[in-house]
Amino acid sequence: MTAPTSRQLPLAGLKVLELGQLIAGPFATKLLGEFGADVIKIEPPGTGDPLRKWRIIEDGTSLWWHVQSRTKRSMTLDLRSEEGQAMVRRLAAEADVLVENFRPGTLEGWGLGYAALAELNPGLIMVRVSGYGQSGPYRDKPGFGVIGEAMGGLRYLTGQPGEPSVRVGVSIGDSLSALYAVIGTLLALQERHRSGLGQEIDVALYESVFAMMESLLPEYDATGQIREPGGSALPGITPSNAYRTRDGDFVLIAGNGDSIFKRLMGVIGRPDLADDPALAHNDGRARHAEAIDAAIEAWSRERSREAILAELDAARVPAGYPYTAADIASDPHYLAREMIQTITRPDGKPLKVPGVLPRLSATPGRLGEGGPALGQHTEAVLDELGIDEATRTRLRDAGII
After folding, report:
1. What are the φ/ψ torsions at residue 128 (nearest 5 degrees)?
2. Contact 104/128 with Cβ under 8 angstroms?
3. Residue 89: exposed, middle, or buried by beta-carbon count in 10 A (0-12, 13-18, 19+)?
4. What is the torsional sign of CA 247, 251, 255, 260?
5. Over the stretch 252-285, which tens digit does the pLDDT of each residue have?
6. What's this model's pTM, rounded to 2 decimal places?
7. With left for phi above 0 and alpha for psi between -120 and 50, is residue 235 left, alpha or beta?
């Protein structure tokens, strides 16, 4: 991947102030930074963002950190202190976007709410990510991504029928909220081109998940039916499931298109099912999902995963298998599309990370380096604000920076 120049980055010149921590807010600023925004990440002195200590740690820092915080500048600042709050006001006065994911009311308690900052900078866009949003009876409840996934309806559907629900293996609620935060930011920037004014963007974790729930609500409203967990299948869409192989592996087969279903039945030697008028369309197949899945698995259990995939590829039937990290790292398609990239950590060590999305043909994003060391850019930001050395010394001695 050719590194883009500053001119090629679509968000070049955009100043973003990040007051968030962990996942949702910081993931949103990561995306903005990858496309050219100058992201100043404010972290507590001494400890920094808790994500620095999440999951696998190497040389004292989470490997996740180097994905989540690439392209950002780290500035330490005690937001609970009056002088730290005054520094945020100075930064916000020059910023285009401020992203925060504190519990609602926290910034207002520090005199850093949108109304106060908009007086200093009417064009400021404030992105607020929280568990339940900035209003409503649950506003003040603490909410992490997993709670948003549960309330949004996703957690109920994950797992096998009749068994406890399981968690999606990544922080999907936070990540979906981050995507909505970025969409909201871009929309607000477009509006600011017309009006010159900023606005607040209110992103709730549970709403970000709920918005992904397809026809769950209208089906309940119209028929009273509550969608239930389907395990590895996709209830009401047939066939689309995981099927066991001869070696005990699993393959995923999505034969739910009408013509694809006919081709799949041809591959497994079931022309009777391919030609059955009752199975010509999805609604009919859904009523006979158990029998269709049994026919497919009777075929798959006699073959290796590789043989199954080869036959289905030849017949143009969508099929695959659950990739591990090792599968991803060595897959030729991932490599050909440059989705496996290498960055350099602050200690000089290389690290493989996911590439940048979305793909823009004329103004692609950038990777940057690994996540910054705690406070690595504090002095540079203070220089930009014109803070003299005597003031810096006093702030350091007081533990404010």
Report:
1. -120, 115
2. yes
3. middle
4. negative
5. 999 999 999 999 999 999 999 999 999 999 999 9
6. 0.92
7. beta
